[in-house]
């Protein structure tokens, strides 16, 4: 069985097509061409703006001409993460999907259900001839994962509807009506290459086996961060007696993913050769005990390596390790207004030697309270500024303030209860949805966000629950078919 055999076939067939088209952020040309070709094949009006965003419009079905226009929205790009032993070229290779019971996952890579299943639902609605609905505007935005570029570039006249259903959340039976705002903070350490000291023992240490995950949706799970674990271990050699010298360091990849792997090449005085292995064994036992219930595959490998060509100068090494060890990561505050909602968090996302004599440390901060967002940004900045790094901030994006009086929310709530005889949960999410940017440009938009069950997004463990996709599809159709005429 393949995913094309799953029910309902309409949505799964389009999801299959999407998995066959490479679509990394900022490299979405092929999926955008597919969408435009889809519109042409179905005789639907389509337009594309300068950023690349596409809007496909489907007229109302007979008798529904006076029903308000509904915008269905998803983003076209996907996070491209794979296991270190997986051979996969995200620029050219299709995603290989595997059915495992009631779940679909990929073979050692991210699945791309975030937000491929949202796109598939839009296409299935646009292609359907057995659904009654008002006018539909299907909005496909670009580059959501690395900067919300498409939503940020959207012009004020591109869409016309006053109701928007975002299809980018990952819990079936939950309706989202708010999200966090976010901002990125990068620190740059300039260093000098120095000659290798004599009589040193050189090793490569690698933190691996972590679950990873979304730095917003999964931050409250207490998942281990490979960069933080590496920093802790390197800090244990900061005592002058070891004479520790750092040659290479790197870990993590994307700003919105919790680092799963991190590594460094360093040396210590030859007389501490055996002590290095002992220290690792003790440290590994400690962190495995700390995370035994959530990171069962956590491991740290240590292997001797040949002497590198150069090392990073001592002062920069010290500043970098101290900053990485001191940099906050994880939940900072919980919401006082919505029970169980993370209000403010920060993620130590990546460490990269990006150029000769330059190291970049990437972090991201989130909060549903604007002042708290700036507070955590300043906290992280302070750590790196004290370590003599150059700090640069992204522009960030706004949060989406919940509207509990939303007519669309009322309809969606009642529709779910009617269909499944259970009340849906109404929630806000500690992640950046494009809805906050939409609201800036279209302040009268009435919005909700829904989706099927998708877990471990932004990691190779990403998977989607098959049975939830059918419920999600039926629910979406139910909402569209029951929007009353004249409602705003």
How would you characterize the overall build of this protein?
This protein has 11 helices and 25 strands. The chain has helices at residues 9-19, 29-41, 113-127, 149-153, 226-235, 273-290, 314-326, 370-386, 407-420, 435-441, 466-481; strands at 45-48, 54-58, 70-75, 97-100, 103-106, 136-141, 163-166, 174-179, 181-190, 193-194, 200-208, 213-214, 245-251, 257-258, 262-269, 299-304, 311-312, 330-334, 342-355, 358-367, 390-393, 425-429, 446-449, 454-455, 463-465. The strands form 7 sheets. Strands 1-2-6-3-7-23 form a 6-stranded mixed β-sheet. It folds into 2 domains: 3-180 and 399-481, Aminopeptidase (3-Layer(aba) Sandwich), CATH 3.40.630.10; 183-393, Alpha-Beta Plaits. By secondary structure, it is an alpha+beta fold.
Fourth CATH level, the homologous superfamily of the largest domain: Zn peptidases
Shape: elongated
SS elements, strand count: 25
Rg for CA atoms = 24 Å
How many helices does DSSP assign?
Answer: 11
> What's the overall average pLDDT, rounded?
95
Profile the largest sheet.
6 strands, mixed
Per DSSP, what share of the residues sits in E-state strands of 2 or more residues?
25-35%
How far apart the termini lie comes to 43 Å
Strand order in the largest sheet: 1-2-6-3-7-23
Can you tell me the CATH class of the largest domain?
Alpha Beta
Pick out the low-confidence regions: none
Write down the CATH topology of the largest domain: Aminopeptidase
CATH architecture of the largest domain: 3-Layer(aba) Sandwich
> Any idea how many domains?
2
């Amino acid at each position: 069985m393949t995913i094309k055999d799953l029910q309902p076939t309409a949505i799964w067939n389009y999801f299959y097509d999407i998995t066959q088209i490479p679509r990394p952020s900022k490299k979405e040309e092929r999926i955008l061409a597919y969408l435009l070709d889809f519109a042409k094949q179905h005789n639907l009006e389509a337009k594309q703006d300068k950023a690349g965003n596409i809007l496909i419009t489907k007229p109302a079905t007979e008798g529904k001409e006076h029903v308000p226009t509904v915008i269905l929205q998803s983003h076209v790009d996907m996070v491209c993460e794979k296991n270190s032993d997986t051979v996969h070229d995200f620029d050219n290779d299709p995603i290989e999907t595997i059915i495992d019971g009631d779940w679909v996952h990929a073979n050692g890579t991210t699945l791309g259900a975030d937000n491929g299943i949202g796109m598939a639902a839009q296409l299935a609605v646009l292609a359907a001839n057995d659904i009654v609905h008002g006018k539909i505007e299907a909005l496909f935005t670009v580059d959501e994962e690395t900067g919300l570029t498409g939503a940020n570039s959207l012009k004020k006249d591109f869409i016309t509807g006053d109701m928007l259903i975002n299809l980018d959340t990952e819990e079936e039976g939950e309706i989202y009506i708010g999200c966090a705002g976010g901002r990125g903070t990068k620190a740059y350490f300039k260093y000098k290459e120095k000659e290798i000291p004599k009589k040193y023992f050189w090793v490569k240490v690698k933190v691996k086996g972590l679950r990873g995950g979304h730095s917003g949706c999964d931050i409250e799970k207490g998942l281990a961060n490979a960069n933080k674990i590496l920093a802790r271990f390197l800090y244990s050699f900061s005592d002058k007696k070891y004479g520790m010298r750092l040659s290479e360091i790197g870990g993590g990849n994307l700003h919105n993913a919790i680092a799963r792997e991190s590594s460094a090449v360093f040396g210590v005085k030859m007389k501490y050769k055996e002590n290095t292995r002992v220290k690792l064994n003790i440290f590994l036992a400690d962190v495995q005990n700390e995370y035994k219930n959530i990171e069962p595959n956590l491991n740290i490998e240590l292997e001797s390596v040949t002497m590198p060509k150069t090392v990073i100068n001592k002062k920069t090494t010290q500043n970098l390790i101290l900053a990485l060890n001191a940099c906050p990561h994880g939940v900072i505050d919980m919401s006082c207004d919505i029970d169980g909602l993370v209000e403010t968090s920060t993620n130590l996302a990546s460490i990269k030697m990006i150029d000769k004599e330059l190291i970049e440390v990437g972090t991201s901060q989130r909060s549903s309270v604007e002042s708290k967002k700036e507070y955590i940004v300043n906290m992280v900045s302070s750590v790196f500024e004290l370590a003599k790094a150059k700090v640069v901030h992204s522009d960030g994006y706004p949060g989406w303030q919940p509207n509990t009086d939303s007519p669309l929310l009322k309809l969606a709530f009642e529709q779910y209860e009617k269909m499944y005889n259970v009340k849906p949960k109404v929630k806000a999410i500690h992640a950046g949805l494009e809805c906050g940017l939409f609201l800036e440009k279209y302040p009268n938009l009435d919005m909700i966000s829904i989706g099927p069950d998708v877990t471990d997004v932004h990691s190779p463990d990403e998977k989607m629950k098959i049975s939830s996709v059918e419920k999600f599809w039926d629910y979406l159709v139910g909402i569209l078919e029951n929007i009353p005429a004249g409602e705003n």
